[in-house]
Amino acid sequence: MAAPAKRPSGKWTTGPRGSDPVDLQKALTQELSVVQVGMLGVQDTPMPFRPMAHLVGPDPGTLWFLAGTDTDLVRAVESPGARAFYCLTGRNHDRYACLSGPIRTVPDRQGLERVWSVTAEALFPGGLADIEWMPLCLTLETADVWAEPQSAIIAGMDAITAALSDSPPADRMHTVLTFRPPHG
Questions:
Q1: Which domains are assigned to the chain?
Q2: In the predicted model, what is the mean pLDDT of the chain?
């Protein structure tokens, strides 16, 4: 039987293949600016993960969300020491991330002004005058990131080829990023 074709190196970054964690964090940040919806959950609560639009705040390493003031989500976030997980899939369905860290409410107009943008205006047409929304700030500590070594179609073909040749398919690449605490 012929030797299996050489597989990718198992590295992923902004380019085709690379290993620099700074590039990987940059690629994740770029993905967060394009893919604006993920699943948010609060640790140690019975509340299921829910779809939420995130807003990239002015401080690197923070994500902002707007939630209704009288919701289970806000009540969960107001618990002392609340921690959250935010999971998303990349625009090409070849990158996956689960970001985590402490989450808190920022119940003032300044919190809203920090994240107000054209995107927020489209989501909340009542504008800043709509006081029924509570800003939530997720301070990122870690991000588990997975990436397919190539497109999903090629990965599927690789799995079929591996099954036919009795060799393991190329694995997803996985790494854990650690974020620096934001300044301020």
A1: 21-178 (2.30.110.10)
A2: 76
